[in-house]
Amino acid sequence: MILLQNNGSWISFSGRMHPVLVHLPIGILVAAILLILLSQRPRWQRFQTAVPLLLLLACLSAVTSCITGYFLSKDGGYAENLLDTHFYLGISVAVSSGLFWICWRLLRRKPWLLILSGISMLLLITITGHYGGSLTHGDNYLSAAMPAALSRFASQPAKAAAPDYKDISDARIYEDLIQPVLNTRCVSCHSQQKLKGGLQLESLALMRKGGENGPVLKDSLPEESEIYKRILLQEEDEHRMPPKGKPSLSPAETELLHWWIANGAPADKKVKDIPKNVRVQAVLAAMQPAKTLDQLETVPASEVAAASESAIAALTAKGLKVLPVGANSHYLSVSAFTAGAFGDKDIQLLLPLKAQLIWLDLSGTQISDQSLETLGQLQQLTRLTLRGTPVKGDKLQQLSHCKQLMYLNLSETAVTDAAVVSLKQNKKLQQLYVNKTKVSAASVQQLATAITGLKIDTGGYRLPVLASDTIAYHKQMN
Amino acid sequence: MSRYKKLIDEANKEHLRYTTRRHFLMDCVTGLGAFALGSFLTSCGSSSKPQALTGDPMAPKAPHFPGKAKSVIYLHMAGAPSQLELFDYKPALAQLHNQLCPPSLLEGKKFAFIRGVPKMLGPQAVFKQHGNSGAWISDHLPHFTSMADDVAFLKAVQTDQFNHGPAQLLMQTGSARLGRPSTGSWVTYGLGTENSNLPGFVVLTSGGKTPDAGKSVWGSGFLPSVYQGVQCRTKGDPVLFLTDPDGMDRDLRKASIDAINQINEEEYTAYGDPETLARISQYELAYKMQIAVPEVMNINNEPDYIHEMYGTQPGKESFANNCLLARKLVEKGVRFVQLYDWGWDSHGTDENLAIDYGFRNKCREIDRPITALLQDLKQRGLLDETLVVWGGEFGRTPMQENRDGKDMPFLGRDHHVEAFTMWMAGAGIKKGCSYGETDEIGYSAIKGKVAINDIHATILQQLGFDHEKLTYQFQGRPFRLTDTSGKVITPILS
């Protein structure tokens, strides 16, 4: 583009030469160090004469690199702390290579001194270069590509495993929230291997056993439990845990520990089971796992092959609408808003789609009990609506084959108590609608106890008549 | 020589006579082809292609990813209700009642009508906390309080338009200026409709007036006009001229529409204008609507308990009737039902627009129907896949209006853009939650601010769209409902 706006200046232009120029001192210094090492053998002693020149060149190119690097840093956009480290390291490379050159005569007399300085020089430029690389390629450029064996060796913090709860309120307090804190902060010393203070914190049972000074946990009394008390001590205090120099617990972790102990240090309760104060709520809210917005519970995570076009066309011809649930999926949703005549004789048409069909809305169609057997074969179904159909439900237990069923709408049908109770086998069922049916409260209760997490809406809502319904507000006329 | 010359001249002239204006233009095209090729090559990197519309523009389409909502009911309170008398409880404002507004709240601010230094106006309602969520709801909405645990309040919605027209346009089309498609148009453009017998996008109005911004709030803007909202009348014939004239039977009607559509199809094959397709599908839709619309728009057949629940009065134009219709339409697969209720502009200029009189009457008019709508959707298992949105186009000031610097005959509040309350319910919206906070007098948003584009992004998200990818190529660039901003309000999603 000829008309590109020119924002450049000599300063930022030369700054951008930095990534090229930095390789000069690196190469020259490596060459110099190589020559120093080689020249230790009498055969190659003559190489030593070249070293001072190389050192001088290295120093000069390092100075140039520092200057251009400084200009480049003016462009901004670099991580401050990394930049500072790299900045001072770069200057020290320039200075030390200069000193090396100046002191050459002095150093060359003692070969070990020469080798030592050479190797320290090599280390310095390696570290400097690493920070420079981190600046341009990002902090985790190397570690991200590191093989597992190597990264264990380099003691990289292992990638945090994704929590196995979807909502923080479903998290197990001890397993999911407390033990991980202990694992990162305490277990390195309080383990079977080290057994500091005779205390092990690898499990709740071991924690309850206590250490050589007795129990560390007093249920419901965090302020009297050693395990909590010691965290709050001043850093200088010799009883403080984790001891000076070891990373201490974050305020959030401390808060969680206090909350857990204050509520009796339960072993298997979930977050939603015990009361929370405002501070704990804030901590928990921050721990809420990020939602994968595009993933619905009612859509299987596994992929499926596309459905046959002719099977879809056959249904479309009957007035049904067949659609992928999303453009990124082969799973299908079928609705029947314009297929009022769709009935038992057509139901077989759904079978070719049984691998893909997950949402089926047949409300207002002529589907009756005869079709339930076929519907039972649609084993991927997660949502099924039979609202306002002639279904009576005598064969409703056929739906127990639909193991994935989560939503079932039977409202405005003639389903009976017996039929509804036969849904017991659908363990995944979460929502059941039986508005305007003959289903009794007793069988609803029976089903609700049989399936955990099932919400049954029996409908029949009425709004009370309130005096305010009819008041018209007017200014009093005097 | 001269004979030859004459001959060549004549041949040339004859040739020119055959070269018409069209030939000239055709030559130009081939000549310009090279330039065109160049521009194609340079634009290779961009993936935006003009949309090719083929077949039925209202055919159902899959969203980007599986969505929780299949339909939307948007309840727009035109004129902008006062959040300070409904959901945003500010006891500190009551302390300041009738005191002069501190200058810090007025400096550099513009108001539609407030001039000089107005007085503060304390909340003119009694608030209580309701439900397990402890949501503050005023006694103006006694029925709605039972829904506290079903809705998600957005307490810090912000807009930048303090006049009704532009603010309504912004709220509905994402832009304060004319010409953009409304939310319902974008949704039907993206999803089509699963009930080809009814319009995909229906508009119902109540309160005696249509919104100030006019019909452009349900217009299709630059989208093909097939996606615009269809306004149905709630009194008399829902759609005018839907019945066949005397002597015209349904077969004859069908035959004539088939003939017209055939001509239109030939027209489309020849010129490829998407508006021709819109025309075809509108003819077909109209024919089907002749049966389907009177049926769905007739609330007389609803059982008595439903009428009692909603507080409907068949034959009258009312918000209650519209709420019941909204449920019926959604039940039949209509994608987007937009309700406008006029009369919320409580300036205090007269009794009807007084915070302490007319406003309370408006609240009474919507309280029962909205509660009934939510409960009815719930018991039918529809709330699960229907997104309900409630709100005005802006909020109202914590100051009492003093139009032209004078005291008003009634209590009133001016238009306020910096913070107001909306709520959403159903279709994957977190139940019983409140997001966003205003300062202690409800003047400005201090936490959880929400822009109009964020509301749009959230609506599209729930329908299964990445709001950044639902685009339409227009005037050389892809447009979207949220245009260049918009963030999904994830804290209110379950």
TrEMBL record, chain A:
Keyword Membrane: yes
KW Acetylation (keyword) present: no
Stored InterPro entries: Cyt_c_Planctomycete-type, DUF2231_TM, LRR_dom_sf
Signal peptide (UniProt feature, chain positions): none
Cytochrome C Planctomycete-type domain location: 186-245
Gene3D superfamilies named in the record: Ribonuclease Inhibitor
Positions of the DUF2231 domain: 17-136
Keyword terms, alphabetized: Membrane, Transmembrane, Transmembrane helix
Record field: transmembrane: 20-38, 50-73, 85-104, 111-132
Domain of life, source organism: Bacteria
Protein name: Putative membrane protein
TrEMBL record, chain B:
Pfam families: DUF1501
InterPro entries: Alkaline_phosphatase_core_sf (IPR017850), DUF1501 (IPR010869)
The name this protein goes by in its record: Uncharacterized protein DUF1501
Organism: Chitinophaga dinghuensis
Lineage: Bacteria, Pseudomonadati, Bacteroidota, Chitinophagia, Chitinophagales
